[in-house]
């Protein structure tokens, strides 16, 4: 009887193990649909609120489409039609629907007012791709792309220039309505001006209309009367203001499109939108079978915004240099566009699964909040509280709900396990902004931001360095559980190592826990015994593995936070998370009245992930330059990281 | 009531409130710790009170927290009376939850009226199996249940990790880079009704009804009688013809089942999906352990466990609120949790002494609110019981 | 792939890892054996380990003296043991549950102290490997057994010492008597309370050292909840070992060796899902116990409290 039971137990066990092995292999592999042959031209339709010759918003899109058409090979390859002057939203909606029904591949709704119409229409045409700007909200609908301009960047540069050139010390701004793209530009301009000449006076006037040229001209006159000798403005009615500027000999800075030809003597520079940068990506995605669900931004870094100087305007050399330095600073992330201000203290609460000093996940967020507090002006401007060690999902949910009920402006749920709870809670608190990581899913709820780390990028770089430096040809990885951010990092590391030294051996060990330090240490020991001379790992229990690396004199590559302090002689490099890059965008978004609906990624390009090299570790020059080339390659997209196993 | 009856009643009432007094004592020690952290204890405990009872929402949260405690506690009432220690609640909750969730994400086309009860039953069964295995191991292979349940807890966690990041992963997650180890979300029809806008769900009521049923089971059925008999005196029971081994297994099966139900209830009432962070308590909130404490607070009586779970739940919920308001590290809350458990468990001695005095003074009475003392006494200290 | 497991490097690696992993289990389980032999179940071991680990780390890092660190761990563990003893012996509290209370208390307090006194994860220069002369040069065996650090050697040395105390001394006899039949022992003049106080405090002390072996010898770091449930496994191993020190050693080694085996399986790329591999030590521990179907009974008075009416 006993032996029989034993036999059954044993057989069951074997069955489970076999089944488990099978399940691993049978896991579905997501395949990409094959690219179809384009026999027909790619058909694009665009709906715009103003004229294609408005020298501003609509013109920028029209110009972009012309550029794309030329690049793709003319009308046989790409044809486009447009409906402009569609400022009546209902008419625009009808046009959008009609174009979709006509079978256009891509229908662009170029105007933030078209959003709700699109939300209705897009689901009815799942085979059609829609693009919507200027916004980053895709409503979570799979066939809507969203695009936006970081117009504050060019605004900032314009502001720097304007302040440098102004002799009267007074600047004037003419805007349409204090919202969206316009407000972004104006705020950037103001920030740039103040940063350059702190006691400069910048007068801002929103005339309440996108089209009233006469009113815009009058606003400009008012500015001139108040002593302004440099003007700027945004949206199509500025042509009125430009005329006034020319009359009074004031200087003009333009945005959205080049306005030089309107007043060649006084236009100094324009921030020109190059929507084709974004359209190219969108069309590529459509060809590959993805019809939406992504948002894009044009900025100085990706060339979607270009600062064009009027060649006929004599710009003093030092001012030009300052401008170029500013541009470089913005693209490189060193220049702050300036924190938004709020009426009351901005209150943030964060819920985290582990301790704030875990040298990994939770610490990275805590450090970021400290940085943000600094950025916003200290405790008087921003205060934050936290609940750490919230690994019990239920308790975390209670905490999140409670913070929201207490009226916090932003509640951050820093842990992918909190998602479900957030889905419940956020709709109950529409005035509160929630942020959730690490993921890109906002559930289509408009007061949830999502953020993720492209941890495979730094993993890749670490892998490249590790493989280059390894003498034994064996690398070891200690991971917690094979999922999420950890898996991304590990896969990236393996990919980078193999891309550098194809027959390198990368041994991976998932120890099944985020906290078992002893087991992590033992896993590291196992790696070392198997010949590894370079180790890496992710999540808080790696402190055990780092100790082993130190003992056995192996190299260590860190991620999430800087682990150099734990083993200064062995740590080579760390991928450090700077969540503040994302938090700044979120705070700015909240200041602009948008409480969610966007997702953010920190990566090497936007400075949210930074490769931090240990200055005490001697890296041979050629390896260092390989690393830097790799970083650059990832940033500009020439290196793509293949994570498939 | 006569004078002595009245005295006895007050006396029992005092006994019942001993856990509360002990909790207060623990909180006083906690106050010292708060002072050392430069936190005002008054403010802190005020926040704790408000967090547990201060509003409709707070009360609802307390009840939501109490529900798994009650369910696990009911199972513990059964197993302890069978003289079996079941510290495998964590693993049993997980297994019950996994199986229950499986029902909900597979049978998406069925009606909620069918799926919810089925899922809860499946959860009950899952926990029963996970508790039954240590039961069988103990009864037939003499493997101590402390060892087997500790191991089974760890195995359950890994099983959960494996399933949630693999075969049971949410299809939408499977495509994303983030690959969060969670199941798909239960559709609206499969969620236990709630008393909106709070999170209080039907499960709380179900648990209370079950408490009554367990009481009936233990004191009004022959099964229950035998479980209690085996627990009190296995040798005598064997001679009386009771198959001791079977009832040992039964005790673990039933306590595991209730824990499994607690797990499934969490999914269908609170989270609407299963998600893992690699630890057991991330999902269970340590209800597998805290439920044991709640049962003890309730004198190991199913009806007594109801107020005990509510109070213990209040403590946990209130403590978390306290953390938020005065911003102490949550580690303090854990330590406080431990202190309360130690103090309450220690206060038992007074209850027992007083009970002995009462028993000596009067003949054993009928069953009152807490019949535990008179009918089934705690194993008398001086008796030897074989294992 | 599976054949890779049979290479010398791997076998030596598994054994060396196993010895290291077993160390904290040994300290804690041997300590718990004394307690259980005298009739007391202590589920708070993990909490004692964490407090001991922190004490050792903090003292080591502030004074630079490792042995002082070990001593502090022993004292802290002993104090926890004292509290447990009082609650168990004098207050007759339900042992399983009071143990959980102590566990939570130790878990929370060690975390809190770490946050307030240290604030950040850092390393300490812990005990180094000690090469035993002559023996450490033996091929294979030398590397596995004789190049460990001192706290590892002590852990293993505890086994025969514990065996000796329990089986060959009067003290051991008293302990066993108290665990089997406290009334009889009491009537023979053995103070049940005093014996239990002794064993529980001893258990706490050894748990403290178990924690120290992690924070200032094997891992040289402290982090919240670094034991991750180790203490509970140690308690379970006492049952596995049938309350005999050599049995406990066997249990600790079995568990740890299977653990290191699964690490190697993953490292060698053998295609078992990581979660299944991690399960292996737990499953095997149960299976081995099932297969050996022990007839040994627990100490009869285990978890039963004893006391005159006072």
Mean pLDDT of chain C: 87
The number of domains of chain C: 1
Overall spatial form of chain C: globular
Which fold name is given in CATH as the topology of the largest domain in chain B?
Answer: ABC transporter involved in vitamin B12 uptake, BtuC
Q: Count of DSSP helices of chain C? A: 12
Profile the largest sheet of chain B.
Answer: none
Separation of the first and last Cα atoms of chain C: 66 Å
Q: Give the helix level of chain B as a range of percent.
A: over 70%
| Element pattern of chain C in H and E | HHHHHHHHHHHH
CATH architecture of the largest domain in chain B, please? Orthogonal Bundle
For the sheet with most strands of chain C, the description reads: none
Secondary structure category of chain C: mainly alpha
CATH level-1 class of the largest domain in chain B: Mainly Alpha
N/C terminus separation of chain B? 43 Å
Q: What is the average per-residue confidence, as pLDDT of chain B, rounded to a whole number? A: 82
Most extensive interface: B-C, 55 and 62 residues
Low-confidence stretches of chain B: 363-387
Descriptive account of the structure:
- The complex is a heterotrimer of chains A (645), B (387) and C (310).
- With 645 residues, chain A is an alpha/beta fold.
- Helix content of chain A is 41%, strand content 20%.
- Chain A has 19 helices and 24 strands.
- In chain A, helix 5 packs parallel to helix 6, helix 7 packs parallel to helix 8 and helix 14 runs antiparallel to helix 19.
- Chain B has 2 domains: 88 residues; 263 residues, ABC transporter involved in vitamin B12 uptake, BtuC.
- Chain B contains 16 helices and no strands.
- The radius of gyration of chain B is 22 Å and the shape is globular.
- Chain C is globular and about 60 Å long.
- In chain C, helix 1 crosses helix 10.
- The model of chain C has no long low-confidence stretch (mean pLDDT 87).
- Chain C contains 12 helices and no strands.
- Chain C has one domain.
In short:
Chain A is of the alpha/beta class. Chain A is built from 19 helices and 24 strands.
Question: What labels would you give this structure?
Answer:
heterotrimer, A: 645 residues, alpha/beta, Rossmann fold, 4 domains, six-stranded parallel β-sheet, six-stranded mixed β-sheet, 24 strands, 20% strand, disordered N terminus, B: 387 residues, mainly alpha, ABC transporter involved in vitamin B12 uptake, BtuC, 2 domains, 16 helices, globular, disordered C terminus
């Amino acid at each position: 009887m006993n032996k029989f039971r034993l036999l059954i137990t044993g057989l069951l066990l074997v069955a489970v193990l076999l089944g488990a092995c099978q399940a691993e292999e049978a896991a579905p592999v997501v395949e990409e649909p094959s690219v179809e042959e384009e026999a027909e031209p790619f058909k694009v339709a665009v709906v715009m609120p103003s004229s294609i010759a408005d020298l501003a918003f609509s013109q920028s899109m029209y110009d972009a489409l012309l550029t794309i058409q030329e690049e793709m090979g003319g009308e046989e390859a790409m044809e486009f039609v447009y409906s402009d002057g569609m400022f009546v939203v209902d008419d625009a909606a009808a046009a959008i629907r009609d174009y979709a029904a006509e079978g256009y591949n891509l229908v662009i709704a170029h105007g933030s007012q078209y959003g709700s119409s699109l939300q209705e229409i897009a689901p009815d045409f799942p085979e059609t791709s829609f693009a919507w700007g200027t916004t980053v909200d895709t409503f979570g609908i799979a066939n809507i792309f969203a695009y936006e301009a970081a117009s504050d960047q060019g605004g900032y540069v314009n502001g720097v220039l304007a302040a440098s050139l102004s002799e009267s010390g007074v600047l004037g701004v003419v805007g349409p309505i204090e919202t969206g793209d316009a407000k972004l530009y104006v705020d950037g301009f103001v920030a740039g001006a103040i940063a350059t000449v702190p006691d400069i006076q910048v007068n801002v006037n929103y005339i309440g209309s996108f089209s009233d040229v006469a009113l815009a001209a009058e606003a400009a006159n008012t500015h001139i009367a108040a002593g302004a000798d440099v003007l700027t403005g945004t949206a199509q009615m500025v042509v009125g203001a430009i005329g006034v500027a020319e009359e009074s000999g004031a200087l003009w800075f333009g945005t959205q499109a080049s306005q030089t030809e309107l007043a060649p003597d006084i236009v100094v520079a324009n921030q020109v939108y190059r929507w084709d940068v974004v359209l190219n990506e969108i069309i590529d995605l459509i060809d590959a079978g993805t019809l939406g669900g992504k948002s894009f931004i044009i900025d100085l870094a990706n060339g979607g915004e270009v600062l064009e100087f009027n060649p006929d305007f004599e710009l003093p050399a030092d001012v030009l240099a300052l401008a170029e330095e500013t541009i470089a600073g913005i693209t490189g992330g060193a220049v702050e566009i300036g924190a938004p201000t709020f009426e009351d203290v901005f209150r943030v609460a964060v819920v985290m699964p582990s301790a704030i000093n875990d040298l990994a996940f939770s610490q990275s967020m805590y450090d970021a909040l400290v940085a943000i507090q600094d950025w916003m002006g200290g405790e008087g401007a921003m205060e934050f509280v936290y609940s750490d060690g919230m690994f019990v999902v239920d308790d975390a949910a209670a905490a999140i709900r409670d913070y929201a009920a207490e009226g916090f402006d932003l509640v951050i749920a820093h842990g992918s396990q909190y998602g479900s709870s957030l889905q419940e809670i956020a709709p109950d608190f529409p005035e509160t902004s929630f942020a959730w990581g690490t993921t890109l899913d906002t559930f289509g709820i408009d007061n949830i931001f999502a953020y993720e780390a492209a941890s495979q990028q730094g993993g890749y770089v670490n892998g490249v360095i590790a493989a280059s430096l390894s003498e034994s040809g064996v690398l070891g990885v200690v991971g917690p559980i094979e999922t999420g951010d950890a898996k991304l990092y590990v896969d990236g590391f393996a990919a980078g190592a193999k891309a550098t030294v194809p027959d390198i051996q990368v041994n991976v060990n998932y120890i099944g826990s985020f906290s078992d330090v002893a087991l992590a240490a033992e896993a590291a020991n196992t790696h070392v015994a198997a010949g590894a001379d370079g180790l890496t790992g992710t999540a808080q229990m790696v402190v055990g593995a780092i100790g082993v690396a130190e003992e056995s004199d192996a190299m260590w590559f860190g991620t999430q936070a800087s682990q150099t302090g734990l083993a200064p002689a062995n740590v080579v490099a760390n991928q450090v998370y700077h969540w503040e890059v994302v938090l700044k965008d979120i705070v700015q978004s909240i200041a602009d009245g948008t409480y969610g609906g966007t997702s953010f990624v920190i990566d090497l390009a936007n400075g949210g992930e930074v490769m931090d090299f240990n200055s005490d570790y001697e890296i041979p020059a050629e390896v260092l330059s390989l690393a830097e080339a790799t970083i650059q390659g990832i940033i500009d997209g020439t290196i793509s990281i293949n994570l498939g196993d | 009531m006569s004078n002595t009856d009245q005295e006895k009643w007050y006396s029992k009432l005092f006994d019942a409130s001993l856990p509360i007094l002990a909790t207060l004592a623990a909180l006083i020690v906690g106050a010292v710790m708060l002072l050392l952290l430069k936190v005002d204890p008054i403010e802190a405990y005020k926040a704790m009170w408000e967090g547990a009872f201060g509003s409709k929402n707070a009360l609802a949260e307390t009840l939501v927290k109490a529900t798994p405690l009650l369910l696990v506690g009911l199972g513990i009432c059964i197993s302890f009376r069978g003289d079996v220690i079941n510290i495998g609640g964590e693993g049993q909750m997980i297994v019950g939850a996994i199986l229950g969730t499986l029902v909900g994400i597979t049978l998406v086309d069925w009606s909620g009226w069918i799926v919810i009860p089925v899922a809860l039953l499946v959860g009950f069964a899952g926990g029963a199996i996970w508790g039954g295995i240590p039961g069988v191991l103990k009864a037939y292979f003499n493997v101590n249940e402390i060892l087997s349940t500790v191991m089974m807890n760890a195995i359950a966690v890994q099983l959960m990790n494996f399933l949630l990041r693999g075969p049971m992963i949410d299809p939408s997650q499977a495509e994303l880079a983030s690959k969060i180890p969670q199941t798909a979300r239960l559709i609206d029809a499969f969620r236990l009704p709630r008393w909106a806008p709070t999170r209080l769900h039907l499960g709380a009521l179900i648990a209370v009804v079950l408490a009554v049923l367990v009481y009936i089971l233990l004191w009004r059925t022959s099964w229950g009688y035998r479980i209690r008999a085996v627990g009190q005196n296995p040798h005598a029971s064997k001679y009386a013809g009771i198959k001791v081994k079977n009832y040992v297994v039964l005790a673990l099966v039933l306590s595991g089942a209730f824990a499994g139900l607690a797990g499934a209830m969490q999914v269908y009432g609170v989270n609407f999906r299963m998600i893992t962070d690699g630890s057991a308590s991330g999902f269970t909130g340590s209800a597998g352990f805290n439920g044991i404490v709640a049962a003890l607070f309730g004198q190991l009586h199913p009806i007594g466990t109801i107020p005990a779970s509510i109070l213990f739940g209040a403590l946990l919920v209130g403590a978390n609120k306290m953390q938020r308001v005065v911003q102490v590290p949550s580690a303090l809350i854990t330590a406080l949790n431990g202190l309360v458990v130690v103090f309450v468990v220690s206060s038992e001695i007074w209850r027992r002494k007083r009970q002995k005095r009462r028993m000596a003074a009067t003949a054993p009475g009928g069953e009152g609110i807490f019949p535990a003392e008179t009918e089934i006494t705690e194993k008398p200290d001086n008796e030897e019981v074989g294992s | 792939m599976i054949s890779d497991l049979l290479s010398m490097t791997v076998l030596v690696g598994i054994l060396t890892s196993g010895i290291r992993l077993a160390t904290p289990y040994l300290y804690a389980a041997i300590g718990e054996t004394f307690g259980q032999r005298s009739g007391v179940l202590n589920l708070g071991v993990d909490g004692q380990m964490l407090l001991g680990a922190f004490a050792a780390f903090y003292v080591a890092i502030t004074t630079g003296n490792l042995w002082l660190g070990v001593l502090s761990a022993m004292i802290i563990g002993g104090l926890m043991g004292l509290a447990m003893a009082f609650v168990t012996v004098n207050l007759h509290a339900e042992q399983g549950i009071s143990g959980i209370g102590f566990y939570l208390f130790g878990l929370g307090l060690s975390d809190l102290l770490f946050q307030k006194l240290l604030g950040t994860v850092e390393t300490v220069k812990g005990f180094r490997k000690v090469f035993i002369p002559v023996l450490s040069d033996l091929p294979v065996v030398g590397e596995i057994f004789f190049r460990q650090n001192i706290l590892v050697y002590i852990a293993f040395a505890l086994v025969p010492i514990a065996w000796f105390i329990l089986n060959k001394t009067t003290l051991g006899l008293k302990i066993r008597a108290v665990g089997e039949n406290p009334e009889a022992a009491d009537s023979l003049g053995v103070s049940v309370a005093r014996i239990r106080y002794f064993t529980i405090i001893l258990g706490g002390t050894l748990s403290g050292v178990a924690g120290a072996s992690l924070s200032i010898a094997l891992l040289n770091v402290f982090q919240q909840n670094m034991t991750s449930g180790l203490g509970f496994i140690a308690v379970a191993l006492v049952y596995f070992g049938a309350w005999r020190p050599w049995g406990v050693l066997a249990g600790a080694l079995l568990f740890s060796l299977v653990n290191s085996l699964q690490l190697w399986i993953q490292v060698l790329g053998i295609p078992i899902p990581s979660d299944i591999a991690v399960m292996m030590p737990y499953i095997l521990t149960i299976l081995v116990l099932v297969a050996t179907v022990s007839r040994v009974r627990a100490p009869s008075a285990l978890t039963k409290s004893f006391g005159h009416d006072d």
